[in-house]
Design brief:
The structure is a homodimer of 291-residue chains. Chain A is an all-alpha fold. Chain A has helices at 2-8, 12-31, 39-46, 52-65, 76-100, 112-116, 118-139, 142-165, 173-198, 203-228, 235-242, 246-268, 275-289; strands at 105-106, 109-110. Chain A has a two-stranded antiparallel ribbon with strand order 1-2. In chain A, helix 5 runs parallel beside helix 8 and helix 9 packs across helix 10. At the A-B interface, helix 5, helix 7 and helix 8 of A face helix 5, helix 7 and helix 8 of B.
């Protein structure tokens, strides 16, 4: 999985050792199912992802643990297991997004349903449910299963809201943000929060990291939509088109993106300084470029 | 949910008090999501199910506990939570089956994708994943999450195998049984096994109940296919058509169904006698009629 990432992933330069451990862990979880008809499709679907969500989880676990005695190494396995669960939830949502948006390309390759067909895309969701339940069983923490649950329901709810709103000519900026919060920010939030839980964070730290993830997720999605708004048929573009002063509107959204990005970094102030926290700040800055 | 069941469910006569507790518990889990766009669709999808799988789970928990001091009441909540998870896994597989088989009717009503559309069907899987993770978090037992995981992966694998084999003119009886074991027996097995675990069963009892569920699941599916073989485009029908002596073949499958049904009841001999065990025997007999 690594080599392809190296070619295109802007995170590789600074985070390559993290990314290879994340990839190794994901590969290990998938290898359990090497007997399955879904094995090759799932490797295909997860290949080439930037792994920003699992990276947030791992860095978050280290950040809250920077000044503590508690051996984070005791939880290392759980941390990478959880990072695989987060990446698989993302992978699953990408497969479904591409069907719904009728995208034929993803990461420069044919999208999943183009390569493996609709039936396989549909059934893969059920299989991934099985994999995530197995990871949950190994992590054995009701708190973490609850966070994964919340993210899964919110993400699908967001996708559904987007489908409904896409038909609505009265679409407002608030609606768009609400979709982004459900569809994207929920999984960023879960990643950061689960990291903080597994890093033995205090209640305040877990809450701060959850907020950080949530705000970063919103910034990330607005930025992504700003980059793509000329090309794709997204909710954001409808919003631009619906708006009479579209140039001003785009400028406003650029400000909004910066604003969420700064708010996200402010949340990190509630956590003690450390190298890992610096990494998270840097990661937030990278959304300015293109993550 | 109860009223409609009463009209059509052959299990109602003997098991109505169980069924209403199972339905109540399922309704309670779904009510958590009354805010969701998926709420009405999920109620629609789960309405009218016969609840044979959750019933097996509950009766299994009582059967292994019949002669024990341990208070099964301590686990009552978990037992009904798990029964909801099992029924939701089944509901999900039904939604996906109907898309793949292009079925327009289910339980006398328009099938899910006909009523709510393909996109909604696809996203519902992700939402159900969230619900099941939440139930897993509440039950808080890695063993049970592992059983749910195994069932989810096997069921989707079985469905995939069926798609592949349906194109294969060399389809054999063994292939058909293998699909049935994955697609149907895995969830019956999980139901019976999870029941036995939550009923404080001994290792031997858990194993016996797992086998019982597995064998009953095979019998149930063969019987279902025998009833339907003239009407539907199933793997079983391909097998009948591929066979030169199709009358003899159907007779052979009838014997096979009886054989699995008897084997299933034999497994129950390993469990102490009780009213609940009698119920499970009766449930097995009901597959002769039409469950």
């Amino acid at each position: 999985l690594n080599r392809r990432n190296a070619e295109t992933n802007p995170l590789t330069e600074q985070f390559s050792s993290y990314l290879s451990r994340i990839d190794d862990s994901l590969a290990r979880e998938l290898d359990i199912y090497s007997w399955s008809e879904f094995y090759a499709p799932l490797r295909y679907a997860s290949d080439g992802g930037k792994r920003i969500r699992p990276l947030i989880l791992v860095l978050s676990s280290e950040s809250v643990n920077a000044d503590k005695k508690e051996g984070i190494d005791d939880n290392k396995e759980e941390i990478f297991l959880a990072s695989s669960a987060i990446e698989l939830l993302h992978t699953e949502s990408v497969i479904h997004d591409d069907i719904i948006d009728e995208e034929n390309l993803r990461r420069g390759k044919p999208s999943f349903h183009v390569k493996y067909g609709y039936n396989s895309s549909i059934l893969t969701a059920d299989f991934v449910l099985g994999i995530i339940l197995n990871i949950g069983s190994k992590i054995d923490s009701p708190k973490i299963s609850a966070e994964l649950s919340k993210a899964a329901t919110k993400m699908s709810e967001g996708e559904m809201m987007e489908i409904m709103l896409a038909k609505d000519p009265r679409l407002k900026e608030d609606d768009y943000i609400k979709v982004v919060e459900h569809k994207t920010a929920s999984l960023f939030e879960a990643a950061a929060k689960i990291g903080a839980i597994l890093g033995f964070g205090l209640e305040d730290e877990i809450r701060a990291m959850g907020s950080f993830g949530h705000l970063l997720g919103i910034a990330y999605q607005i930025h992504d939509d700003l980059l793509d708004w000329n090309n794709e048929d997204r909710l954001f573009n409808m919003l631009v088109k619906n708006n009479e002063q579209s140039v001003e509107f785009v400028a406003k959204m650029e400000k909004l993106f910066l604003c969420y990005s700064i708010k996200a970094k402010n949340e990190l102030r509630k956590i003690a300084d450390s190298v890992s926290k610096k990494h998270l700040e840097h990661l937030t800055d990278l959304t300015y470029i293109q993550v």
